[in-house]
């Protein structure tokens, strides 16, 4: 069965990688750690999906098993890493609107540390816990690529499927609290942001809009995946560790003609993979075309132009080659300094000091769909 989204999907996924990374430098400079983690998780998930969609277009061959081991863990991590980053964005916006003074440098460091624990350490722990309900090594779906093979048993819902929804609910709570605080303190809003020079009013509103938009993608997807796993196949009893991991090295391979026949599985797969590049493109739409972004583009272009002009503009001393009949006076007219006097009075053949040659050094997601094992 032909994949109608090829090569459209790989193009969008690759654009998601590049466009999401564009605003990273100025968010990093402003200590927006939650936004930085959102950028990194989204870009990594888009890159993972891009590679999978290219390598397994029209086939289910197990050609890169080590990559699949890495790929499914990226998908697992992104399924909670992106919602966790959105949670940290909403959390930061709430603390900004409810604060009465500027935060100290130590307080900034503590908030960055807390964001790192939520957006980095928690996804790593989440990835490790998925081994408990991983029925076999991985699955390969034609046109999709590597996919986690999670066993549809009761611990799956507590260890895997429920966490994106739980994080989304906490994030939505922060979002509602932020909106309520903003309504109450809207007259003081300019004064509040004056204590946070790294946040402008428009950047604050864009972050709020991004977090709310992200909730519109994450919570429906998490709810749909829980419903799909509960209804598409019978819930299996948890017998024990050995039963769940029996024949663990097995790799499931599913041609497109099989999995595309099931409407619910087809909808879950397509929505599951398209939501990541859409998140990246929405993020770029909020932050990649704003006025501050355009200023950074102009600044980056000027720096690049100056670097290129300095690198390729020749030094007049090095580019000047005197002719046999030219004297020191001729060279001074061209703006080239004369060579030091060597003690000889013969001006027909001036002695020119040689320079040392210059040495140039180079300048350096996805929610899980469980299947029976």
From TrEMBL:
CDD domains associated with the record: 7tmD_STE3
Transmembrane regions listed in the UniProt entry: 6-26, 38-58, 70-91, 112-133, 161-183, 204-228, 274-293
Chief place of localization: membrane
Membrane topology: Multi-pass membrane protein
Keyword Transmembrane helix listed: yes
One GO MF term: mating-type alpha-factor pheromone receptor activity
GO CC terms: plasma membrane
Localization of this protein: Membrane
Any Pfam family matching the protein: STE3
Keywords recorded for this protein, A-Z: G-protein coupled receptor, Membrane, Pheromone response, Receptor, Transducer, Transmembrane, Transmembrane helix
GO biological process, one term: pheromone-dependent signal transduction involved in conjugation with cellular fusion
Family per record: Belongs to the G-protein coupled receptor 4 family.
Protein name per the record: Pheromone receptor
